[in-house]
Amino acid sequence: MGRDTIRIACGQGFWGDRLDAPIEQVRRGPIDYLMLDYLAEVTMSIMQKQRSRDPSQGYARDFVPLLQEIFPDIVERDIRVLSNAGGVNIEACRDGLMEAAREAGVGGRVRIGTVIGDDMLDRLGELIDDGHALTNMDDGRPLSEVLNRVQSANAYIGAAPIVEALKQDARVVVTGRSTDTALTYGPMIHEFGWAPDEWDRIAHGIVAGHINECGAQASGGNCLVDWESIPDLADIGYPIVEAESGGTFVLTKHDGTGGRITPAIVKEQILYEMGDPCEYITPDGVADFTTISLDADGPDRVKVSGVKGAPRTDQLKVSISYNAGYKAVGTLVYGWPDAVAKAQRADQVLRERLDRLGLAFDVIRTEFVGWNATHGALVGPPAEDVPEVELRVAVRAAERAPVDRFTREIAPLILSGPPSVTGFAGGRPRVQEIVAFWPALIDRDQIESRLRVEVVEA
């Protein structure tokens, strides 16, 4: 503690982001912290399925070899790493990191902190019996309606255990379903010694975390503003929060990297996943996004200030996933001439055959990719014949059997439907289990996070 300014770099915006981005953040310029965000709502259910098949799975597996490569760098450069890569199997992730640190030759010089307590899956029945309905925030249904189909349940925990881990000199801190933003504002609270009720400063940290959490989306990736002129996207620099003790921060990136950081691009990221702009709620406080002030602070530097905050709520959000049936998606590509008409006729034939088989689906949805898939019914008949179009048909049902039969009815259209099929993309469709999201709230006192900090043995 005691520094007036720290640099917190983002190296991953989701599980599947660029593998070399964290390495470049560590090696291409000075940083104090590296945060890696791997989790989305559906990711937790994917990890839970992996763990059910193999007890050693259930976390972001590419996190461990990444750390093995950069362990010597972060020790030499005195960089700390924070990540929610632990998923639903934080202990297995910790074990992997311990071995990776020894293999990297930093045994005895690294402390690893792990935070558990967010996983509520085994407690759901007990909580419901005790009067916690875990009502769906979108439609008001009690969780008891789908309890036997729940696959994962995790509360969004805040920065307190992260701050404590840093206080205990953890070089790497791994959590499960931490709120994404805490991976950025946790170091700010630790370094600057903010009190838990300094709401305006915490609100600045929340905004910093929100901008930082999606990786290169804040530095020119996936942006609409002058996207054609974004320089060197192949070598795009990921964002870095340069934070001051009072809360004000500058968003920037390493010199010599591609991409761009401007107030307009930062505004796009601020609006991403936005609900009520006056109440951006996290476990540690509430930020009013309507009070944010953005100012250019030089090339690829945007200063963020003026953020107002409010006290934290007495509840935590819970991310629950459950089985909601089965689906399959089949595709065929039709070529010129009359590509759209052929695809439309094929869709009609397919639906008639499904009706004759007596198959019941909750939904049958058709798109004609290359003509109306992006804008749907807003697009009328093609002004002129398109050279090719992909027929994409998706079905959904509560039971697997009708979906499985649907997957056998696509290929026959090649020889028993309209002419000029040019591609049977991906072969026979695959039946997939539908994982639905159930957002809920739980009283804060029902969740207790636990921290463990260990030295890697030499």
Any descriptors?
single chain; 458 residues; alpha+beta; Alpha-Beta Plaits; 2 domains; ten-stranded mixed β-sheet; six-stranded antiparallel β-sheet; 12 helices; globular
Report on the structure:
By secondary structure, the protein is an alpha+beta fold. The protein has 2 domains: 5-118 and 156-313, no CATH class; 324-438, ACT-like. Chain A, domain 2 (Alpha-Beta Plaits, 2-Layer Sandwich). It contains 12 helices and 19 strands. A 10-stranded mixed beta sheet has the order 11-12-8-7-1-2-3-6-4-19, sandwiched between helices. Strands 5, 14, 15, 16, 17 and 18 form a 6-stranded antiparallel beta sheet that branches. The longest helix is centred in the last third of the chain and has 18 residues, at 339-356. The model has no long low-confidence stretch (mean pLDDT 94).
Question: TL;DR of this structure?
Answer:
With 458 residues, this protein is of the alpha+beta class. It folds into two domains: 5-118 and 156-313, no CATH class; 324-438, ACT-like. Chain A, domain 2 (Alpha-Beta Plaits, 2-Layer Sandwich), CATH 3.30.70. It contains twelve helices and 19 strands.
Task: Provide the helix percentage.
Answer: 25-40%
The tally of helices reads 12
Query: What structural category do the secondary elements indicate?
Result: alpha+beta
Number of domain units = 2
Seen as an oligomer or otherwise, the chain set is: single chain
Mean pLDDT: 94
| Rg of Cα set | 25 Å
Question: Largest sheet, if any?
Answer: 10 strands, mixed
Proportion of beta-strand residues: 25-35%
Flag low-confidence runs: none
Number of DSSP strand runs: 19
- With strands numbered from the N-terminus, the spatial order across the biggest sheet is 11-12-8-7-1-2-3-6-4-19
Distance between the termini: 27 Å
Shape: globular
